């Protein structure tokens, strides 16, 4: 399956090729600040975040959910760092919920 995405201004476009939507590890992260060195790729025209990798991410590459053209086709499976979730934000039903990244 092919999923397309890009930045706000259209300068950056990409295709994400997955055998199945289940191969995507979609999640919502409530961390306050990344504590590891990561490389972040973004559009140099509009500043939209596209992806990040490196550091504690290991061999994983994380695509910014908001950069997908059709994010509803890859819904999140869980939430991390729920201890930092804003008080006004409700827990999302049907997902796993972890207070930390590793529980």
From TrEMBL:
Molecular-function GO term, any one: carbon-sulfur lyase activity
Matches recorded under SUPFAM superfamilies: Mss4-like
Domain CENP-V/GFA: 3-103
Domain of life: Eukaryota
Key words, A-Z: Lyase, Metal-binding, Zinc
Family designation: Belongs to the Gfa family.
Name this protein carries in UniProt: CENP-V/GFA domain-containing protein
């Amino acid at each position: 399956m092919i999923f397309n995405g890009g930045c706000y201004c259209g300068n950056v476009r990409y295709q994400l090729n997955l055998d199945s939507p289940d191969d995507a590890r979609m999640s919502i992260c409530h961390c306050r600040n990344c504590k590891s060195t990561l490389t972040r790729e973004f559009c140099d025209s509009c500043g939209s975040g596209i992806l990040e990798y490196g550091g504690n991410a290991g061999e994983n590459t994380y695509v910014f959910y908001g950069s997908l053209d059709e994010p509803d086709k890859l819904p999140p499976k869980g939430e991390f760092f729920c201890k930092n979730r804003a008080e006004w934000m409700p827990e999302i039903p049907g997902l796993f919920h972890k207070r930390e990244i590793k529980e």
